[in-house]
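Lab notebook, bench 4. The sequencing result for the construct came back, and we need a structural model before the next group meeting so we can plan mutations. Quick request posted to the team channel:

Model the 3D structure of this chain.
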Amino acid sequence: MKKIIVRILVLVAGFFIFLTGQTVGEHIIIRREVKEFTSKGVLQENISTDLIKYYKVSRETYYPEEYVRDPFYQGNLNRPGAIGDIFVTQTSPLALYPGVHQFVSFYFGGHAAYVDENNRLFETIGIPGASEKFLDVLLNGGENTHAMDNVRNYWLDPNHRDETDPGYRTYGNYYRKEWIGLRLKESTLEDNQAVVSNLRSLAEQKAQYNFLFVLNTKNRYYCTDLVTRSIEKINDSQGNQKYKFNKDGFAVTINDMILSKDTYIAYFVTTDRKNVKHVYYIG
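Done. Here's the predicted structure in token form:
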């Protein structure tokens, strides 16, 4: 019995060593891709301020064959994104839980949302209400732990959080200090409209959040799962699946989405030590 326990512990340790090495490699590649993207950015002094700097990455120098879309909704610099854009952050929402926050951020990432034609968001969040019990939500679903549409675009809102918010110390007044915007390669407006239709259907069904991730996946979704599975329903002109994110049958992480051969970076937002925001975008 003792030998069996030892072998199991060795296998578990070996798995985490492998997973850690793989994840470190992913983070390195992502930093490299971000650096390549931001190196093409040109400061737009006419729209920048002391608190936020905007850098245009010319579409002629970065995926010029992709169809043109406006980087900001109706020219509003606080509302980035066009239909089909995917916002992701590697930073977890669990800042109040030291250790867990860093673990989730490193291995899985934080959140993903999909932009619709009106610059509103589709997303799902696994946070039960104050009056709800986690076990009840896990088994039966919750009031707000389901796919949602028509969510306000808060990703670049400077007033998203104030100093009274428990997360202010970690995240500041914006939603996150750093995040990435992705686009699908070779997508069409019709593709993106079809994804919106898929997501809207799930929102109407109030498809519940999947707290078990790799289990109970038929009708439940975690945030990256909601977005990627809606995209994976899209077919090409020959009727074949056009995009695929979950190639190993395991959970789709934020890193998986960023490093997918089917996506490219369209936005990068970061915050420097002086609390100045830097926004890079394809324009």
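Residues 2-282 form one domain.
Will bring this to the meeting.
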